[in-house]
Amino acid sequence: MLDKIKEEQSDLAQMVRLALAEQTEDVRLFAARLVRKYRGTAPDLAEQLELYLKSKPARSVSPMRRLSPPRPEAGAMPVDDESRLSLLKVFKDDPAKQTPLLSSDVDDALRQLIEERRQSDRLQAMGLTPTRSAIFVGPPGVGKTLTARWLAAQLNVPLYVLDLTAVMSSLLGKSGANLRAAIDYAKREPCVLLLDEIDAIAKRRSDDTDVGELKRLVTVILQEVDEWPASGLLLAATNHPELIDPALWRRFDLEVQFKTPGEQSIKEALKRFLGPDYALFARWIDILAFAFAGYSFSDIERDVQRFRRAVALGAGTDADLVEDFMKARALALDKQGRINLAVMLAKETRLSQHAIADVTGVSRDTIRKYTNGVPTARKTTGRRKADA
Ligand SMILES: Nc1ncnc2c1ncn2[C@@H]1O[C@H](COP(=O)(O)OP(=O)(O)O)[C@@H](O)[C@H]1O
Ligand SMILES: [Mg+2]
Question: Distances in Å between the alpha carbon of 94 and those of 8, 157, 272?
Answer without folding.
Answer: 33, 10, 19
